[in-house]
Design goal:
- The complex is a heterodimer of chains A (235) and B (118).
- Chain A has 235 residues and is an alpha/beta fold.
- Chain A has nine helices and ten strands.
- In chain A, the strands form two sheets. Chain A has a six-stranded mixed sheet with strand order 6-7-8-3-9-10, with helices on both faces. In chain A, strands 2-1-4-5 form a four-stranded antiparallel sheet, with helices on one face.
- Chain A is globular.
- Chain B has two domains: 66 residues, Winged helix-like DNA-binding domain superfamily/Winged helix DNA-binding domain (Arc Repressor Mutant, subunit A, Orthogonal Bundle); 41 residues.
- In chain B, 62% of the residues lie in helices and 7% in strands.
- Chain B has a two-stranded antiparallel sheet with strand order 1-2.
- In chain B, a hairpin with a 3-residue loop joins β1 and β2.
- In chain B, α1 packs across α3.
- The mean pLDDT of chain B is 91.
- The chains are: A alpha/beta (235), B mainly alpha (118).
- Chains A and B meet through α6, α8 and α9 of A and α2 and α3 of B.
Chain lengths: 235, 118
């Protein structure tokens, strides 16, 4: 569905992504894991065409990503991207203008669930409220692929439950979700597949249940094995 | 619900549902939540829930009515059998734990009796 083919991205002297390939398939929830600076955000930005790779590319339904694919791929970036004067309602209008698949009704019900009101100004939102607003407006699209960059970052436990629930609700047999995070424990129970990115490389891709069944390991165990001091034990 | 990280989640959810049937929190013939609802309720992957229902069906614990959803078995004997199995498993685990501590046979019985009398 969404394919990353041999992508390399260089920023100045730093290689942010180095010959990475993987495939995102429908009906699955993916965790994209790795410490800060490992290349997760750059990968997501390339998947929606916001950053151009030096070589290789992202393909959606076998076509290079771009204007067309953006209609079906919803992306939520880590940094807030609304004008400070906007209210939650304005944010909804802004999205409705950009994306045909945006549902104002769904947005309204998500806002309510997140305990946000349409008249709230984005500049007055706490970081937790901003995170909830970003999720609400992104999940109000009925996209085929959702790319969520660090949706659980800096969020209290209760907000986290609401955010995870609204992510799970979007899962369908024809939909793929990719969630990047360094909070491994939070994602453990909700993902099918874990993609481990290490130092700009693809370190491993694991089916989470088979990891538990075959190796008796959790995603967190594998994470420690890949990034921790147990290096050298390849998988 | 809290999960143990190294055990497959589908097995943990299966056990939780069976326990609810055995303890009567779920009644015989009751409709179970949809895959999506149960996934949201437990904040787990919907594919995991599908697998839970599939495996429970294969074990005869649940059955599916086409277009209507998944239901708890109506067979009381099945529920009784599940209770037996769960009790046997708990007993095994208890005895194994005691054995690891070097406590066996009469000593185990003695301890249980002591507990009963207070």
């Amino acid at each position: 569905m969404l394919e990353c083919r041999e992508i390399t991205k260089v920023y100045g002297r730093k290689t942010a992504v180095d010959h990475v390939s993987f495939e995102i398939r429908p009906g699955r929830i993916y965790a994209m894991l790795g410490p800060n600076g490992s290349g997760k955000t750059t990968l997501m930005k390339m998947a929606v065409g916001l950053v151009k790779p030096n070589s290789g590319g992202f393909y959606y339904k076998d076509q290079p990503v771009g204007q067309e694919s953006r209609k079906e791929i919803a992306y939520m970036s880590t940094e807030p991207y609304f004008y400070p004067w906007m209210t939650a309602k304005d944010v909804g209008r802004y999205y409705a203008d950009f994306f045909e698949d945006f549902s104002p009704e769904r947005y309204e019900s998500l806002l309510e669930r997140m305990e946000l009101t349409p008249d709230m100004k984005t500049k007055s939102l706490s970081s937790g409220m901003m995170a909830k607003l970003k999720i609400a407006v992104t999940m109000a699209r009925s996209a085929k692929v959702y790319l969520l960059d660090e949706p659980l970052n800096g969020i209290d436990l209760l907000a986290r439950d609401e955010i995870m629930a609204s992510i799970i609700e979007a899962a369908r047999p024809d939909v793929a979700l990719v969630i990047s995070s360094h909070l491994v424990d939070e994602l453990e129970r909700m993902v099918d597949t874990a993609i481990f990115i290490k130092n700009s490389h693809l370190a491993a891709v694991w089916d989470v249940e088979s990891l538990r069944v075959q190796e008796g390991k959790s995603v967190a165990d594998k994470y420690r094995e890949i990034y921790g001091h147990g290096e050298g034990q390849s998988c | 619900m809290e999960f143990t990280s190294a055990l497959p989640i589908y097995l943990q959810v299966m056990t939780a549902i069976k326990r609810d049937i055995v303890t009567g929190r779920l009644t015989l013939g009751e409709k179970l939540p949809s895959v999506r609802d149960l996934a949201v309720q437990y904040t787990i992957n919907p594919n995991t829930v599908s697998r839970v229902y599939r495996e429970l069906e294969a074990e005869g614990v649940c059955f599916t009515r086409r277009g209507m959803g998944t239901f708890v078995t109506e067979d009381a004997a099945k529920a009784a059998q599940m209770k037996e199995e769960m009790a046997a498993e708990l007993t095994d685990r208890f005895l194994k734990g005691m054995e690891q501590l070097g406590i066996t046979g009469d000593e185990v019985m003695k301890r249980i009796k002591e507990r009963e009398s207070c």
